[in-house]
Amino acid sequence: MLAMISLVARTMEAKVTVEKAEYKGWTNCYRVSNGEIEAVVTADVGPRIIRFGFVGGQNLFKEYPEQLGKSGEKSFQLRGGDRVWKSPEDQATWAPDNVVVAVEVTPAGLIARAPIEPATGLQKEIEIRMGSTGPQVTVFHRITNRSASAMEFAPWALTMMAQGGTAVSAFPPRGKHPENLAPTNPLVMWAYTDLSDPRLKFTRKYLMLRQDPGNPQAQKLGMFNQDTWAAYVLHGEVFVKRTSADPTKRYPDFGSSFEIFTNNEFLEVETLGPLSKVNPGQTVEQAEHWGLFRDVELGAGDENLDHVLLPLVHSVEGAR
To answer: Using CA atoms, how far apart are residues 154 and 273, in angstroms rounded to an integer?
Structure first.
């Protein structure tokens, strides 16, 4: 239950409110809302967006009940929600985010900024900019190099979705042989990727992955699409995240701008920025536009997805 304890900021012109709130054991959280949608950001740990949904509706993000309200652990905790990591993945990627973060309220939302990580010298932050009306928000995932040395990495935005839904993403525009002879994109596999997995479905235009609470096997795929997006359908509602990738730049994991992962606990939709040399004091950023939609039922096949889902995706431009 989300319990309000004090009003921090209300921007009357924008109709976006930012309220300090208790959320499931964390006493220092912030709720950003425009009256239609809401995002809850933790300040006792993180930065994390632990809830995103329609006001009074379901949380489309995963939560780990046994980890809610806790902080100060020595190791990284999954917790759920949306977070920012560095890519390529290594031991430093899993640096704990279990301490208090600073929150700066802005006219359209807030910025949640973690302390510098002692083990990595990196500082992470998430900014929310919510539209004054409508179910859209822009989320900026940033990492600043506060160490004394340059590093090479990419910003990585990971959103853990609640159980029981289905994720959809698109391949770049399809063509025909022999008119289109050049390859269009990589399809990236991990050692545990299993293309025979019944949770996976490929069509000519789309990749679909179903979250199954009864299947504990990890599954992951990556790919590149200049118009990178993912949709997650859960109980008739659809969460969309969308960003742009630059084909002239180098991306992690054999050129992936999008990655998708699932097991029996959650499904994760992930976008990645380009790899770059990040000098001391420099910041890299991965901006995503999010949207929410109600009363959506997806059928099977490209024609249905083109008709039902694609217009929703194309309408997501976020708040700027």
So the answer is: 5
Count Cα neighbours of 46 within 13 Å in the Cβ-side half-sphere: 31
- Name the nearest CA neighbour of 80 among 292, 266, 230, 289: 266
Report yes or no: 57 and 70 within 8 Å, Cβ to Cβ. Answer: no
Stated pTM of the model = 0.94
Q: How far apart are CA 166 and CA 290, in angstroms?
A: 17
The CATH classification number of 2-315 equals 2.70.98.10
What is the Cα Rg of the chain in Å? 19
Domain boundaries, the chain: 2-315
Q: Strand, helix or coil at 223?
A: strand
Query: What is the maximal distance between C-alpha atoms in the chain?
Result: 64
Continuous H helices in 86-128: none
Reported as a pLDDT band with limits 50, 70 and 90, residue 9 is very low
- In angstroms, the CA 225 to CA 245 distance is 7
